[in-house]
Amino acid sequence: MTTVPLAELPGRPCPIAASLELVGERWALLVVREIVLGSTRFGDIVRGTGAPRDRIAARLKTLEAAGVIGRTAYQQRPERFDYHLTESGRDLVSVLDALLAWGDKHAVAPDDPRRLERYRRLTP
């Protein structure tokens, strides 16, 4: 699992800054969201995030190196994987739920035509 030395962070180093170094990029958290929602294969993760394939490939490698996700081969030729959250990744689910609540209240206009009446929390 990757950690971030606080001494290497610019500005006011703290655990928030260290966390953002590992998972603060937009696509990283959306990859975690997709895995939580049951999309465990590369193509499904790409579709669910709407991100370019190369970005998702890079985020999956970064998240695996950080110990947030793991992968299991389900096909040898060509090599393909199922992705799953590690304990570290599962600990991010409450963070995603907090972002969901904040975004529902502050980031999405009440009259947005694509707004759902109620978003499902990611934690059971």
TrEMBL record:
Cited InterPro entries: HTH_HxlR, WH-like_DNA-bd_sf, WH_DNA-bd_sf
Name of the protein in its database record: HTH hxlR-type domain-containing protein
Organism encoding this protein: Nocardioides conyzicola
Lineage: Bacteria, Bacillati, Actinomycetota, Actinomycetes, Propionibacteriales
UniProt entry keywords in alphabetical sequence: DNA-binding, Transcription, Transcription regulation
Residue ranges constituting the HTH hxlR-type domain according to the UniProt record: 14-111
One Pfam family hit: HxlR
